């Protein structure tokens, strides 16, 4: 059977990541390995997460494990959390519970796009944007962030808009750079998107990819595009703040600033679309646990200490690094501008980092700070001597 063109295109886009993942599944299991690649847990799961799930496993009724769409207690808890965090009143009907952020992004694409539409994505940025778009018969339009600060480059975004543009993806806090975009930047982006929508004669949407929203360091404020641009959808994953990416739980939320008629149309389409794209709802137990999980999260004080340890030691050793405002990543320039060569030298010491090539920036590298403090301390001498 001949593979569909969009499947082959998606396969080609994601191949560097799947190849790297395959290598790491073998290497990271070797005794003494220090894995600083993906944002996976390196310690036992959070007790609060385990307790929340355990409390929901025992059935309360015959339908406890029956088919579930977006459960009302989960939607109510999410809407309350969003309202408190973002200072804008979300309603439960604004929320669709999904299988993590992947499910939320897929739902957003099905809600808003038609084949051959264009979606502007940040570079460097999450390496799954383009493959997801290709598999949906959409065209990714990579737009570089500011080369020095990794802030949004509004001129580059404006230049990338065409009559086919449908969505601008904003990821804040950003993977891999850790940048959190300011209120002023996002307000300017909202004006840009509104002006461009008028110019091309169709609405340009913002998809605000916020899985790291609750992972910010002390004193760093947060603005969601949903509070400054009415035509915004938020996707979120609990897998980051819980450090449990294998437990698929997330949501898609509509900006409450959206015009009432548009909002009603999208609300009505959520459940039918989730049914039609393959039952895109989280498992029953995960949904039951949402009200409790809204209050559970990793130790941000410890995470900040890890950031300061590694950033401080590598900066002192002469590395050029972005000091992250959030996420659990550290992004830096590779010695001699060759991220693959740097990663290969570290691999000789069984220390593994992610080369920037996977983010379309071969001169950089990314470190995941989800490793234990002991692992990070053991990795530092190799990181410094491999420069």
Helix/strand/pairing category: alpha/beta
Strand content: 15-25%
**Largest sheet: number of strands, sense, barrel closure:** 7 strands, mixed
Architecture per CATH nomenclature, i.e. the level-2 architecture of the largest domain: 3-Layer(aba) Sandwich
CATH level-four homologous superfamily name of the largest domain: Type I PLP-dependent aspartate aminotransferase-like (Major domain)
Helix count equals 12
Any overview of this molecule?
It comes from Demequina capsici. This is Aminotransferase. GO terms for molecular function: pyridoxal phosphate binding; transaminase activity. Residues 35-377 form the Aminotransferase class I/classII large domain. With 387 residues, this protein is α/β, with parallel strands linked by helices. The protein has 2 domains: 5-43 and 298-385, Alpha-Beta Complex (Aspartate Aminotransferase, domain 1); 48-293, 3-Layer(aba) Sandwich (Aspartate Aminotransferase, domain 2). The protein contains 12 helices and 12 strands. Helix 1 (5-27) runs antiparallel to helix 5, helix 3 (72-86) packs parallel to helix 9 (284-293) and helix 10 runs parallel beside helix 12. The longest helix has 23 residues, at 5-27. It starts with a helix and ends with a helix.
Please provide a brief summary of the model:
41% of the residues lie in helices and 15% in strands.
Notable characteristics:
transferase, PyrdxlP-dep_Trfase, five-stranded mixed β-sheet, pyridoxal phosphate binding, 12 strands, single chain, 2 domains, NHTrfase_class1_PyrdxlP-BS, alpha/beta, transaminase activity, Aspartate Aminotransferase, domain 1, seven-stranded mixed β-sheet, 387 residues
């Amino acid at each position: 059977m001949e593979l569909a063109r969009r499947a082959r295109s998606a396969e080609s886009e994601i191949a560097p990541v799947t190849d790297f993942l395959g290598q790491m599944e073998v290497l990271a299991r070797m005794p003494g390995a220090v894995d600083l690649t993906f944002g996976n847990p390196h310690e036992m799961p959070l007790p609060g997460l385990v307790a929340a799930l355990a409390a929901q496993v025992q059935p309360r009724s015959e339908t406890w494990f029956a088919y579930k769409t977006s459960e009302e207690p989960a939607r109510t808890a999410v809407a309350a959390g969003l309202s408190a965090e973002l200072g804008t009143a979300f309603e439960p009907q604004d929320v669709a519970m999904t299988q993590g952020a992947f499910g939320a992004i897929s739902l957003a694409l099905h809600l808003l796009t038609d084949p051959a539409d264009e979606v502007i994505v940040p570079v460097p940025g999450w390496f799954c944007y383009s493959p997801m778009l290709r598999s949906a018969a959409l065209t990714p339009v990579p737009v570089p962030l500011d080369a020095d600060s990794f802030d949004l480059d509004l001129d580059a975004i404006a230049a990338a808009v065409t009559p086919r543009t449908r969505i601008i993806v904003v990821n804040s806090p950003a993977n891999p750079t850790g940048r959190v975009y300011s209120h002023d930047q996002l307000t300017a982006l909202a004006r840009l998107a509104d002006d461009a929508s008028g110019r091309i004669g169709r609405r340009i949407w913002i998809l605000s990819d916020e899985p790291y929203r609750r992972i910010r360091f002390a004193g760093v404020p947060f603005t969601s595009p949903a509070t400054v641009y009415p035509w915004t959808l938020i996707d979120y994953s609990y897998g980051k703040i819980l450090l449990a990416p294998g437990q698929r739980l997330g949501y898609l939320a509509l900006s409450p600033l959206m015009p009432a008629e548009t909002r009603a149309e999208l609300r009505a389409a959520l459940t039918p679309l989730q049914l039609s794209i393959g039952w895109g709802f989280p498992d029953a137990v995960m949904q039951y646990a949402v009200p409790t999980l809204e209050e559970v999260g990793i130790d941000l004080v410890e995470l900040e200490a890890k950031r300061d340890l590694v950033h401080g030691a590598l900066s002192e050793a002469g590395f050029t690094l972005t000091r992250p405002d959030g996420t659990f990543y550290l992004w830096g320039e590779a010695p001699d501008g060759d991220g693959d060569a740097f990663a290969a030298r570290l691999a000789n010491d069984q220390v593994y980092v992610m080369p920037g090539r996977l983010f379309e920036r071969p001169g950089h590298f990314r470190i995941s700070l989800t490793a234990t403090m002991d692992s990070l301390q053991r990795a530092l001498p190799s990181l410094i001597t491999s420069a």
